[in-house]
Amino acid sequence: MEVLQLLVYGVVLGSILTLGAIGVSMIFGILRFAHFAHGDMMTLGAYFGLVFVAGAGISPLAALPLAMGLTAGVAIVVDQTIYRRLRRTQPVILLISSFGIALALRSLIQLVWGPNSEVYRSGIQIPHRVFGLVVKPDHLWIVCGAVGLVVAVHLFLTRTKMGKAMRAMSDNMDLALVTGIPAERVIMGTWVLGGAMAAAAGVFLGMDTRLHPTIGWGVLLPVFAAAILGGIGKPYGAIAGGMVIGIAMELSTLVLEPTYKPAVAFAIMVAMLVVRPSGLFGGRT
Amino acid sequence: MEGLIGYGVFFLTMAGIYAVLTLGLNLQWGFTGQFNIGVAGFFAVGAYTSAIVTAPDSAAHLGGFGLPFPIGVAAAAVMSGLAAVAVGWGTMRLRTDYLAIATIGIAEIIRHVLKNEDWLTNGVRGIPGIPRPVETELGLLGVVIGFVILVYLLIERARKSPWGRVLRAIRENENAVMASGKDVADFRLQAFVVGSAIMGLGGALYAHFTAFISPEAFDPLYGTFLIWVMLIAGGSGNNKGALLGTLVIWIVWSGSEILTSRLPVEYVTQAGALRVLLIGVILQVILLYRPEGLLPEERPRLGRPGDG
């Protein structure tokens, strides 16, 4: 029974990691660098959600689209003012820059909202009991929300011109550019997608526990692990990777202290890098 | 006046410790192009190793060996080097982005271990009473400066050696180096391990200087980010630049603390965030407008036919 209960938590965590990993995977695939500010972008999304939840008194789910839009906007601004101008050099310079952006975003969040924990809603939720399993209503919303967003991403990537262009650039950059895909527009689209998904992951993280300026940074490593496990540049791989990492992290609490959950993600990631660096679904290395 | 001199000594000692870390990073990033974003982890392993090896017996944490300072420093370098082997072994054949992710992973895990394994490290309460090799503050400054000079000469020698040339060649064109029959992954691992061992040495110096260590000090912000900004500001690949960058960024960082300490108490945490933001902005400005740093790397002059 305990295992089943942990599986429930694992699916919730996996849903959140998946949303983060989709962005990391696409950015890595198209812009060729590991985006270290992704965790703090999630945090930013969570706090944008808080503005509407606390300010307008709406539910976190209603605030979700607004938080996603604002965070996508911030991602575009950061890209246009900084990353775009560094793109001419080696991709690894972007990596350093994104590390700096991560800390700058976090300190901005601390300046605006303070260093203490916040919650969307105080009070205790009455959990549902399904076949002896404890399921909080928020857990259901998180998983349903994540499934809805993943389906939306799927439709976007397969049915729209922009989505197809993104997949093409991620699969084979040179070939895509030769066919006349407008690279700068696709890159902006990638930031909108990555920023919006990061914000959703952040809001869900905030719903699951509480908001803190380091919540995003805390899951950055599992998010990278999920993206690598699924294969870089493979958004569908990110879903599988997110679920595997999320469930493995929660199941590990049977034998390990909960604080070592990120270490489990790390171990799976390193094992994958040694055995098959292209990931489960043959992404890029 | 005495307070001012005291502060000056403290300031220079900390700058010296950071200089050791920056020189270690220069070997990895500046020469070889390796992205170690877990400097804090190797820094912490060195500090804790030396502390445990030399500290007097205590019920609160592993220890009681009471060994002398030089052995503590040597053990610190060895342990950090071993940690580097563990991280580097799987990732040396891959793009450096993967090394970056792996190193940040190991640094976070080390921080969790330091916080949670009380029997080993006394958890968040830290290890007090780490013995100092010399009694006076000025003497300690002398010891630290001695180590800075030693590490500088060592790395400068390495830079000019055939070994250093292979490292820089790997950074510039990996395939060409492979084509000339060098084992690229092996050379990378060597550079990574030596660089990390130097960071461990820096950690040992830090532990003996402050005489007290706790996981707080090895936050990615202080342990990794500042060191990266120091190296990039000074000039990656140039050892003199690494030293200059350390001094300049340390002046900015400490100076901003003096300014923000004048703010009322209720703004203390906010002020800390403001200082981090300042350093983050400085990094972006350097990357955009002077990516080669204050002292750019000296490129070897190409010999013309007929020269020497």
Structure in words:
- The complex is a heterodimer of chains A (285) and B (308).
- Chain A contains eleven helices and two strands; from the N terminus they run ααααββααααααα.
- With 285 residues, chain A is an all-alpha fold.
- Chain A has one domain (2-114, 132-275): ABC transporter involved in vitamin B12 uptake, BtuC (Orthogonal Bundle), CATH 1.10.3470.
- Chain A has a two-stranded antiparallel ribbon with strand order 1-2.
- In chain A, helix 2 packs across helix 8.
- The N and C termini of chain A lie far apart (39 Å).
- Chain B is mostly helical and 308 residues long.
- Chain B has a domain at 9-217.
- Chain B is globular, with a radius of gyration of 20 Å.
- The interface between A and B is large, with 43 and 41 residues.
Task: Based on the model shown, name its key terms.
heterodimer; A: 285 residues; mainly alpha; ABC transporter involved in vitamin B12 uptake, BtuC; two-stranded antiparallel sheet; 11 helices; globular; B: 308 residues; 12 helices; 72% helix
Widest sheet, order of strands of chain A: 1-2
Structural class of chain B: mainly alpha
Q: Give the CA-based shape of chain A.
A: globular
Text of the CATH class of chain A = Mainly Alpha
Query: Using only CA atoms, what is the Rg of chain A?
Result: 18 Å
Distance between the termini of chain B: 56 Å
Instruction: Tell me, rounded to a whole number, the average pLDDT of chain A.
Output: 92
Strand content of chain B: under 5%
Tell me the major beta sheet of chain B: none
Alpha-carbon Rg of chain B, integer: 20 Å
Task: Characterize the quaternary organization of these chains.
Answer: heterodimer
As a percent range, the share of helical residues of chain A equals over 70%
